[in-house]
Write a structure and sequence with these properties.
Layout: H1 2-20
Protein name: YggT family protein
Length: 21
């Protein structure tokens, strides 16, 4: 489940970056 957790964090960071832009 560590892979899914990492993927979720990566997606959240990406969405956060797009939101800040």
């Amino acid at each position: 489940m560590i892979g899914l957790n990492t993927a979720a964090i990566y997606i959240l960071q990406t969405l956060g970056s797009l939101y800040l832009l």
